[in-house]
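Recap quiz, item 2
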Amino acid sequence: MIIDEIRQGLEKHVRHRIWFVSDLQQRQPLRARKCMEIAMDDFVSLNLKPEVICYLGDATEGEDLGYIQEMAQMQVEQFARVDAPVWYTIGNHDFDYFRFHRKELPGMCIPFVEYVRQFPQWHVPNEKEMARFLDLGDIAVLLLTDHANPEGSWYTTHGELHGFAEEYPYRPEDYRKLMEEVQALNKPVVTCAHYAFAGGNRAAPLFNRFLPLPANVRIHFYGHAHVGDAFWAGKDANRKISNVDGQPIVQVDVASLESGRGSAVRSVVFEWYDTDEVGVFFRNHSLGVWDDVLMIRDGDCQFVPLAE
Ligand SMILES: [Fe+2]
């Protein structure tokens, strides 16, 4: 395949490589294991040695604690097959257990996150924080995450606030302040989240508070919208690449690691080259092939005036 040849030629230029995965999202442990093994067997066979794995949420689905713990344990075992830290962002289905059992729970509880937190390979957010920075030297990654009050009085999913809005501590100015922090890093930033910004598939309304994004945001990766799932994404079901509304910043749909709602077990490999160009490779693990590739040169969004 030509995409494989392209990849071989690029190997010597790779400065950073991030493996983006999202939405294993299964109720049944057996089905979850099957999808995870399809993805992991294929990824390990590629021998890509990512610097970091960014897991964009919805690792499980449903309210059955035994099932969730079984699926969490299985994922800890599977990701241990790759020698790279896993940075996790929380998605809407991570709240399924809390939403179903909230009356008998003393506060917020996200069993998957609490389980994986004990393993040094896994980096998970604290419930209340809406973002974490990951410094990779000459670039940084900003992970936006669903967040919640540890007491359970409010939480965010689908880009909306649920519960007691008056107790939510973040004002629109705090969202802008986070973008000022991004800008102040003074280096390129890759952003990622369970959701898209406006212009992507099934975008998060709360993320509008972040817009416009600072110019040093290079690209955004998101999950939630399983590629091929017309029920939830409608006409955009097969759209993997879009841009942030009104801005020349590309956003990429990573989902999903499952092939029940989505049309294949998928993930995305992102590479940053010594030329400051970036590459996005869409892996179809179900077929063991690269489906698509996107290359973006440095400064492709800068305005170039016409010569006099
Ligand atoms: Fe989701």
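The first strand starts at residue 14 and ends at 21.
The chain has seven helices and 15 strands.
End of item.
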